[in-house]
Write a structure and sequence with these properties.
Elements: E1 11-13, E2 16-18, E3 22-24, H1 39-50, E4 55-62, E5 74-75, H2 82-94, E6 98-104, H3 124-128, E7 137-138, E8 152-153, H4 156-175, E9 180-185, H5 190-195, H6 210-227, E10 234-239, H7 250-262, E11 267-271, H8 292-302, E12 305-309, H9 315-323, E13 329-332, H10 334-338, H11 342-351, H12 361-374
Parallel strand pairs: 3-4, 3-13, 4-5, 4-6, 6-9, 7-8, 9-10, 10-11, 11-12, 12-13
Antiparallel strand pairs: 1-2
Helix pairs in contact: 1-2, 4-6, 6-7, 7-8
The structure holds flavin mononucleotide.
The site of flavin mononucleotide has 21 residues, from strand 4 and helix 10.
């Protein structure tokens, strides 16, 4: 087996070695109760580890119960959540993959319906299932869209309390056995709401200027870094652009990434959009690898490792992105829902037929035999 394919070359991040450059992007499953991980989450995430990805992220995991998007989000706001998460991280590690956790707070996009219930504000049908609204928080009292709840504007004291929840969640993530932690500051959720001039109209030190709007995310990144082992990496997911007039720009992302790097953030996970619509509704043209140019610019101009994501489905395309120096890690989202073995299949495609060494023995031994019988 030749090792000239970057997608299947190791990536060192502090003391953590990813066996390849394929990561599974965080993807909410809206299937938890009171924030607890259950068998669904174990099987859902476990199969990506069996499927050969070097890094497997949990979905957005709420640092406060009020920071959940829906009643079904995973949570890490109490110690009781640790054992369920630990079962998942241990299984992922048993498959020679690295477990990552995305820590999140939904801000003004909290208290919503699950996508398959309408993706809108909670209504009487949800309430009849026992799923009531709760009071939501944001930098400014501006609803995400008409018909949605108007958030409560956070006081300075409340901002400190939320940051403290991030600290507690980071400590719990460590106890739950994760090796990578990601600060979710994208898609119109709380961190992004502080960054974007669309959602942050504050006149105090957490708003007003670019420096003020970046303060919440930078301080939170520092808190996570201080409470996460020095030998393990921290990622930050950002919306590289808002894609709306007067919004957050790619130049702002470069500035932010330079500041995050100074605070010990290892990788910028370059997504986009979501500030004034649903989570992935950026008003930018979509196509294969449409967010790669964001990753490329941030990687070069901020001189930091990046993860790229968004409509990357072909192994040769993923390889080309890495070979041309536009990203360090390729994150796969929906393609992994379609094919949880995407990494293993890509390895066969890039490295040559009949290569089953990386497969779990339980599968690889048989597939190798089958391959030999065919030829
Ligand atoms: C079902 C689903 C849930 C998602 N949940 C999250 C999430 O929890 N956190 C996040 O940052 N992005 C989330 N995303 C966005 C993905 O991480 C990814 O950026 C996006 O799907 C684009 O990548 P893809 O084209 O490979 O799917 C979600 C996407 C999907 C499809």
């Amino acid at each position: 087996m030749t090792l000239d394919k970057l997608l299947f070359t190791k990536k060192q991040l502090r003391d953590i070695t990813l066996k390849n450059r394929v990561a599974i992007a965080p993807m909410c499953n809206y299937s938890a109760k009171d924030g607890f991980a259950n068998d669904w989450h174990l099987v859902h995430l476990g199969k990506f580890a069996q499927g050969g990805a070097g890094l497997v992220f949990t979905e957005a995991t709420a640092v406060q119960s009020t920071g959940r998007i829906t009643h079904g989000d995973l949570g890490i706001w109490k110690d009781d959540h640790i054992p369920g998460l630990k079962k998942i991280s241990e299984f992922i590690k048993s498959q020679n993959s690295i477990p990552g956790i995305q820590l999140a707070h939904a801000g003004r996009k909290a208290s919503m319906q699950r996508p398959w219930h309408g993706n809108g504000p909670l209504d009487h049908t949800d309430q009849s299932r026992g799923e009531d609204n709760w009071e939501i928080d944001a930098p400014s009292a501006i609803a995400v869209a008409e018909g949605f709840l108007t958030p409560h504007e956070l006081s300075l004291e409340e901002i400190g309390q939320i940051q403290n929840s991030w600290k507690d969640a980071t400590i719990r993530a460590r106890k739950a056995g994760f090796e990578v932690v990601e600060l979710h500051s994208a898609h119109g959720y709380l961190g992004h709401e502080f960054l974007s001039p669309i959602s942050n109209k504050r006149k105090d030190k957490y708003g007003n200027t670019l420096e003020g709007r970046m303060r919440f995310v930078l301080e939170t990144a520092e808190i996570i870094r201080e409470n996460w082992p020095k030998n393990k990496p921290v990622f930050t997911r950002i919306s590289s652009v808002d894609g709306v007039d007067g919004g957050w720009t790619l130049e702002d992302s470069v500035t932010l990434s330079k500041e995050l790097k100074k605070r010990g953030i290892d990788v910028i996970d370059c997504s986009s959009g979501g500030i004034s619509g649903s989570a992935t509704a950026a008003k930018i043209k979509r196509g294969p690898g449409f967010q790669v140019p964001f990753s490329e610019k941030i990687k070069i101009q901020a001189d930091i490792s990046t993860m790229t994501v968004g409509l990357i489905t072909e192994p040769h395309h993923a390889e080309e992105i890495l070979q041309s120096g536009k990203a360090d890690i390729i994150a796969i989202g929906r393609e992994a829902l379609y094919n949880p073995n995407w990494a293993l299949h890509s390895e066969v495609e890039l490295m040559g037929e009949g290569e089953f060494e990386s497969w779990p023995h339980q599968y690889g031994w048989w597939l190798d035999k089958r391959q030999k019988s065919k030829s």
